[in-house]
Amino acid sequence: MNEQALMDIAKVLVAGDKGLLAMDESNPTCNKRFAGLGIPQTEKTRQAWRELIATTPGLAECISGAILYDETIRQRNKQGTPLIKTITDAGIIPGIKVDAGAKDMAGHPGEKMTEGLDGLRDRLGEYSQMGARFAKWRAVIALGEGIPSRACIEASAQALARYAALCQEAGLVPVVEPEVLMEGDHTLAQCFETTEEVLRAVFRQLYIQGVMLEGVILKPSMVLQGLACPKLETVEEVADATVKCLLRAVPAAVPGIAFLSGGQSGELASARLNAMNLRFKSRLPWALAFSFARAIQRPAMEIWSGRDANVEAAQQALLHRARCNRAARRGEYSAAMEATGA
After folding, report:
1. For residue 300, what are the domain limits?
2. Which of 126, 159, 175, 185 ranks highest by number of CB atoms within 10 Å?
């Protein structure tokens, strides 16, 4: 393990007010989103969509790294060039999703456990040889009556830590993603309590497994009320709760925190990230960045709709959302950016 190289990559991923673009949707997830927009669910259309993203002019101004899926890292563009080379040549660091998805947890109804540790060392070695420089593993934590259980939290934290240790062994920066899901009617306070407990468990396990925190990126969910909660918290209340929770649970050695969007709209995710940086940036030990998927991709996918004639307009929409999030990192995002498309 080259500690300095890992630290350098981790710093670059959250430097320059940039963030990560999560384009690592599994084939079933990508097909589901295509189906909702009437786009054919084929390998060819998935390749076309990913090429659209990778060739968006100016994307590297806002995006430092792109998280890919196994199919994507092996795909080529229309000219036969590997997509990973297109991404690298654009000045974006390629990463790879390495978990095998969340499955029902035995003995714990309503809870999930992420699989994929078997054979991970060999897969990480292959991805590194292909050009990946970081990886991502997602754990999912549901809130509800009697959940999350201690068993789910501890098992998820241990899996994240074992994955992270294997990543660093292979020379890849681990992006550690413990997602507290938005589904449910839980309050902001309940989400705060669970998120703090989950983060403490994760960092305890990272310490036990000997993971170097200076070479890790944390990808958490924001502290949010459930989608079915009748009380809608303000942008400022979400920002305050999220930062307070992170300060309690995330060591200062971590170079950056790149939030997932978790189903938030692009505008709301940008506004909440902006509020955190506007109010707290100068007082925080780590950078607050983004690692959004739908919150950046959705408008562009709707415009594209699988048609070659719409590629340029879709790329402009993708770049706009990326620019909004870079502005949010600076604390300079505003609704006026949406109105003008600036």
Report:
1. 3-340
2. 175
Q: b/e string for 104-114 if b means 16 or more Cβ within 10 A? A: ebeebeebbbb
How long is the chain? 342
Residue 81 sits in a domain of what CATH number? 3.20.20.70
As a whole number of angstroms, the distance between CA 132 and CA 151 comes to 32
Q: What element of type H or E holds 164? A: helix 150-169
Q: Are 193 and 235 in contact (CB under 8 A)?
A: no
Catalytic residues: 177, 219
CB burial string 231-262: b at 16+ within 10 A, e below: eebeeebbbbbbbebbeebbeeebbbbbbbbb
Give pLDDT tens digits for 281-315.
999 999 999 999 999 999 999 999 999 999 999 99
If one counts the domains in the chain, the total is 1
- This model's pTM is above 0.85: yes
